[in-house]
């Protein structure tokens, strides 16, 4: 019986010089990618020379096209490697005009896909969507442009009675877990006192606080995340033991925002030289509340809050 011909895309035939000519990627760059990312993974001749396949060439061309269009090197290579592991198509066709994963889908459509998978409690699909987006976008971008809007949509649907409270809790906790993971897995923070993040007494909605924590940690800023419903007395004891560089209060509801009027009775700002700030939806919906709360209002959006906080702390 005749031996089956080997698929040309699987035959390692190109040396590294040919790869450079075909892809436009310098040899030094190919070596650096191989050391840092394990990509491309070349075969070796008995003499130790690298050989590459047609598939390798196609993947390298696609990675270069994505980098040239503004995508980070790590994200582009991760997308190709993810396609290899999952069996997703990663080859460019002969015309070289398509990509393995279509991130040209408008962001609102991607958010809706994620929202639908969460409401359907299809956790595998939700994991896949977030994983695919992470291959192309850093956690801070997804925090602001995907997780935040989806959390808001879930809250609005619950408030309108279109989803059950149990569904709202389940989905919100799924997203909270992702934010917590991104916060703790961020690069090691710089040395120094942390920014302390706390919800006002009685406040259980900490989604925006978690988002701020992710963004701070992604900038290398140390964070002490206290989370939901932090009583003044307990916080004061914590601060006396380990004073932070700044305290950020968050209140999403009018009743919890009003409790913050009392914080100076427990926390002596000047004594520990702590920057006291606050924010949250309650102050956006009712701006007059800003006049009643001691401290510095950080702004109406998380982006504004992050900018103002880092400027107040004189962090570049």
> How are the strands of the biggest sheet laid out side by side?
4-3-5-6-7
Structural class of the secondary structure composition? Answer: alpha/beta
Total tally of structural domains: 3
Helix and strand run: HHEEHHHHHHEHEHEHHEHEH
Mean pLDDT over the residues: 84
Largest sheet: 5 strands, parallel
Strand content: 5-15%
Considering DSSP H and I runs of 4 or more, what fraction of the residues is helical? 40-55%
Output the CATH topology of the largest domain: Rossmann fold
- Compute the number of helices: 14
Question: Span between N and C termini?
Answer: 70 Å
Give the C-level CATH assignment of the largest domain: Alpha Beta
Cα-atom radius of gyration: 25 Å
CATH architecture call of the largest domain: 3-Layer(aba) Sandwich
Shape descriptor: elongated
Low-confidence residue ranges: 1-9, 86-103
Count the beta strands.
7
According to CATH, the homologous superfamily of the largest domain is: Cobalamin-binding domain
Counting copies of identical and different chains, the oligomeric state is single chain
Compile the SSE list and pairings.
Layout: H1 16-23, H2 27-37, E1 43-44, E2 50-51, H3 54-68, H4 73-86, H5 107-119, H6 123-134, H7 139-159, H8 165-184, E3 195-199, H9 207-218, E4 223-227, H10 232-241, E5 246-250, H11 254-259, H12 269-272, E6 275-279, H13 281-285, E7 296-297, H14 302-312
Parallel strand pairs: 3-4, 3-5, 5-6, 6-7
Antiparallel strand pairs: 1-2
